[in-house]
Amino acid sequence: IELEADLRQAIQRNQIFLDYQPQIRAGDSQMIGVEALVRWNHPTRGIISPGVFIPIAEETGMIYELGTWVLREACRQMKEWHNAGGPLIPVSVNLSSQQFHQSHLTEHIKGILKEVDLQPQYLELEITESMMMDAAVSSSILHKLTEHGIRISLDDFGTGYSSLSYLKNLPIHKLKIDRSFIRDITVDQNDKAIVATIISMAQHLNLDVIAEGIETKEQLEILMKNDCKEIQGYYYSRPLSADEVEEAFFAPL
Ligand code: G
Ligand code: G
Ligand code: MN
Ligand code: NA
Questions:
Q1: What's the pLDDT tens digit per position in 216-244?
Q2: What is the spatial distance between Cα 210 and Cα 49, in angstroms, rounded to a whole number?
Q3: Domain, as residue range, for 26
Q4: Of the candidates 194, 240, 236, 188, which has an alpha carbon nearest to the alpha carbon of residue 212?
Q5: Model's pTM, two decimal places?
Q6: Residue 113's domain is classified under what CATH number?
Q7: Which residue owns the Cα nearest ligand 2 atom 22?
Q8: What is the number of domains present in the chain?
Q9: What Å distances lie between residue 227 and 65, 188, 232, CA to CA?
């Protein structure tokens, strides 16, 4: 309850900020994207994780204001990096289910992109399988977004309940293999089989695939053996401040 009242003020008081976790091409360790991750610097409680305050924002309807701030800030930052000579790579932004279903989502995002002068191919939206439950509705939303040139990735892939049939019909660019499959991949043959199968399926469906939560060299080696080309995780980098990302552009990780 206290947090809820505080959250209402947090944006105006400049307590909300974004960290960015690099996404790396395993072959040459190049940064090929960054995922924006929202944080709240609370005046007395310190840094609060989105796992704590995003649910509050969703329950109270503040998610629209917060989500808009995140989208605008991520796009603005990417444009600033481009202007500073940084690489032409996309920024990924997590969308909550309510945001995904908000009316005129594409027009809203188009407005933000225009405002900050960022081309749509440099914005990637992370959605989850649970948002695909109503195939007709999600298809219509995704087609509008992708017809405008925005990229779509399926976050936490493999943990949802939806059928795989949406993969053949919906305009999706990338699968993000959930980190729960990676954690024990060096010892659990089932996890290894699931990950290998997701990578192979993605290749056959012409989708990009990225593995999340890579923390060790041993995990990385298994992913590379299975031809997973993109990696996100503490092994390469934890989420970084905007300044740290800029340093990493010019003095690679
Ligand atoms: O960064 P951290 O591991 O604390 O993130 C916890 C969760 O919060 C993750 O599931 C992540 O997807 C989610 N998250 C991070 N940033 C955002 C955001 O800007 N919007 C939404 N809806 N979720 C976010
Ligand atoms: O749900 P989503 O995939 O968006 O969650 C992203 C979160 O995962 C980020 O907030 C980030 O802090 C966390 N994360 C990123 N890399 C790793 C990792 O290698 N190990 C663990 N345990 N968490 C990670
Ligand atoms: Mn994510
Ligand atoms: Na994930």
A1: 999 999 999 999 999 999 999 999 999 99
A2: 23
A3: 2-165+234-250
A4: 236
A5: 0.97
A6: 3.20.20.450
A7: 213
A8: 1
A9: 40, 19, 15
Contacts of 49 (CB under 8 A, 6+ apart): 39
User: What's the pLDDT tens digit per position in 48-93?
Assistant: 999 999 999 999 999 999 999 999 999 999 999 999 999 999 999 9
Cα end-to-end distance, the chain, whole Å: 41
32 in a domain, yes or no?
A: yes
Does residue 52 sit within a domain? yes
Q: Is residue 79 part of a domain?
A: yes
Q: Ion ligand 3 — residues with CB under 5 Å?
A: 94, 126, 155
Distance separating alpha carbons of residues 132 and 172, to the nearest angstrom = 11
Give the binding-site residues of ligand 1, using a 6 Å CB cut-off: 37-38, 49-51, 54, 70, 94, 96
Atom in ligand 1 nearest the alpha carbon of residue 37: 16
Tell me how far apart the 2 most distant CA atoms of the chain are, in Å: 50
Which single residue is written with the structure tokens 């493999």?
Answer: 158
Complex ipTM = 0.96
Domain contains 221: no
